[in-house]
Amino acid sequence: MARILKGAPVAEALDRGTAHAAAELARRGIRPALGILRVGERADDLAYEAAAVRRCEKLGVAVRCVNLPADVKQGALIAAIARMNSDALIHGVLMFRPLPPQLDEAAACGALMPSKDVDGVTRESAATLYYGEGEGFAPCTAEAVVALLEHYGVEIAGKRAVVVGRSAVIGRPAALLLLQRDATVTVCHSRTGNLAEITRGADIVVAAIGRAEALGAEYFTPGQTVVDVGINYSEARGRLVGDVDFEAVESAAGAITPVPAGVGSVTTSVLARHVVRAAGGAV
Ligand code: NAP
Fold it and tell me: Which among 36, 103, 181, 247 counts the fewest CB atoms within 10 Å?
């Protein structure tokens, strides 16, 4: 049976460093603070917001939530972002996406001050990721994937990593972070042919496709490490499931992250860490 790589121990380890750095800042009179910008009332945004608030407050990071109606106009959204940009007491901003269709998401992301972009949505953050240097932050979920692998001592350098999914928020940044750590990286997507053949050749498989239990045992071989980023509601099972069919793969892979309680549990810890760093904390 595969080793189960749970997120909670990773989050706890990250949080120890974050809380320490936040306390150091507090001694200098700085209270790190996150601004959360939510448009509408999407259930997954609300769940993530509640988890982020809980995590941040536990670690000494203040949170200010601004909620805009689902039918908000672009001008009002940009004005809300501008207010967070100019508020010296807010060090990082998280804006939930996707935004409703009437809004120009690229323009909204571009309006955010790069130094406060703790979830890596601006082009400045993307450049940091691309070049492997700079002040920007990686998207929290992508960084959580790597934090989890590193916590469990999974060797990355020199290993073959396959990332399934190429979104700007998870697949691409996860691939770049793995490349930075000297993995040999293949990125797959919906047009990839022979996907199972490619994933079976990997040492590490990161699944980020957003399809409930789409990757079954035939995609994996013994000894592989499988990181399942997917969070999907399965009508059939009546609960959240990943992109990987956990029950089928548990006996085929070497190690696997569960859903829930895997990568998702690490994401808010990475977010809090980014806020503390944006506030000047050494973490
Ligand atoms: P997304 O924007 O929909 O991107 C999905 C990617 O998967 C696309 O690149 C798509 O290919 C590819 N894909 C779709 N079906 C495929 C298939 N059958 N075979 C191979 N590739 C396929 O999704 P996302 O925002 O990256 O999110 C991915 C998953 O992560 C979702 O389940 C989401 O809920 C979850 N998520 C988890 C966290 C967390 O904290 N754990 C945070 C955010 C999101 P194309 O590019 O060709 O369309």
Answer: 247
Cα 170 to ligand 1 centroid, rounded to whole Å: 7
pLDDT (tens digit per residue) in 173-218 = 999 999 999 999 999 999 999 999 999 999 999 999 999 999 999 9
- Residue whose CA lies nearest to ligand 1 atom number 5: 209
Ligand 1 close to Cβ of residue 171 (< 6 A): yes
187 Cα to the center of ligand 1, angstroms: 12
CB-ligand 1 contact for 232 (6 Å cutoff) = yes
What is the CATH architecture of 30-113?
3-Layer(aba) Sandwich (3.40)
Work out which ligand 1 atom sits closest to the CA atom of 230.
Answer: 32
Using the mean position of ligand 1's atoms as its centre, give its distance from the Cα of residue 214 in Å.
11
Helical residues (DSSP H) of the chain, grouped into ranges: 8-27, 43-58, 74-86, 105-111, 123-131, 140-151, 171-180, 195-200, 246-249, 263-278
pTM: 0.97
- pLDDT tens by residue, 48-79: 999 999 999 999 999 999 999 999 999 999 99
3-state secondary structure (DSSP) of residue 7: coil
What's the topology of domain 140-264? Rossmann fold (3.40.50)
Distance CA 180, CA 182 (A): 5
**162/200 Cα distance (integer angstroms):** 9
